[in-house]
Design a protein that fits this description.
- The protein has a domain at about 10-25 and about 110-280.
- It is α/β, with parallel strands linked by helices and about 280 residues long.
- It is globular and about 45 Å long.
- Helix 4 runs parallel beside helix 5 (about 155-170) and helix 6 (about 190-200) crosses helix 7.
- It is built from eight helices and nine strands.
């Protein structure tokens, strides 16, 4: 896989700041929350906060953003911290709900399916999503929520199976690469190097996007993520040290075989309208 780098394009979408910025063509990291997921996240709330496609569209409009990529949060049901009855059924249900929500606005929204890549049903769900026109464009993986450990050979082997299957179906991958903070898993340059060496070679035909500048949200104040990002940036520099501006133009129209690094930070609010967005394409 060839890696390309381009300068940071900072797009602020919060009220007041948006007017001073150029509106992005698309927001490529959005989430919706079904009633089931909302109840899972807010178990003590009498009215858990749902977020539907109908709710998202006016938020995009307020920031003059035309299109968005909606990433299913079905992987939350597969978190090892939770014991979920009929877990895989709920994963399927959440993915289907997300896909149908996005399908209500076909000119504006696209959806990726999500799942814990370490689960025994991971490949089955990928294959199922690949056949669904609402979900077949890509997958979202969350290493932190799923407690994926890139230092664990068994985890890497399973990830290679998932990545290889995604490549076969030409499904792009969005990955929250930051390892679990609550479990204090190792994370930094070594893990980023393992990601480059062990996983990217098996996906030569698709795009891989590393979310949140290789870090996490809210905010970006995480030295291990800095180390991981530095390793990714160094790999890009070695692969293609040419003029970044030319690579921007090329990346906007290029085919697959490039890695994209996303930078996003959240404001004090958890609502999408409080989110700041930016991108560094690699």
């Amino acid at each position: 896989m060839r890696l390309f780098i381009a300068p940071l394009l900072a797009f602020l979408t919060t009220t007041g700041e948006a007017a001073a910025q150029v509106a992005p063509l698309a927001d490529y990291h959005q989430h919706l929350f079904s009633p089931g997921i909302a109840a899972l996240i807010f178990p003590d709330s009498s009215k858990p906060m749902t977020l539907t496609a109908r709710d998202l569209i006016p938020i995009l409009d307020s920031a003059s953003i035309r299109r968005a990529l909606v990433l299913s949060v079905a992987y939350m049901y597969g978190s090892p911290k939770r014991k979920i009855q009929d877990e895989y059924a709920k994963v399927r249900e959440e993915n289907d709900w997300t896909g149908k929500q996005a399908a209500q606005y076909p000119e504006r929204l696209r959806a990726f399916c999500g799942f814990n890549p370490l689960k025994e049903y991971a490949l089955q769900e990928l294959e199922r999503c690949a056949k669904d026109p609402n979900l077949g464009r890509g997958i979202k993986l969350h290493f932190g929520n799923s407690d994926v450990q890139i230092d664990n050979p068994a985890h890497v082997e399973q990830l290679r199976r998932v990545f290889r299957a995604a490549n076969q179906h030409r499904m792009a991958i969005v990955v929250h690469m930051r390892a679990s903070i609550s479990q204090k898993r190792p994370y930094g340059a070594a893990q980023a190097q393992a990601f480059i060496d062990q996983l990217l070679p098996v996906v030569p035909d698709i795009d891989v996007q590393v979310a949140h500048f290789a870090g996490t949200g809210p905010g970006y104040d995480d030295p291990p993520s800095d180390s991981a990002m530095a390793m990714l940036a160094e790999a890009v520099e070695k692969k293609d040290p040419r003029d970044p501006a030319a690579l921007v133009r090329r990346c906007l129209h290029c085919g697959p075989q490039h890695l994209r690094i996303e930078c996003s930070a959240r404001g004090q609010t958890n609502s999408p309208s409080g989110r700041r967005k930016g991108t560094l394409w690699i």
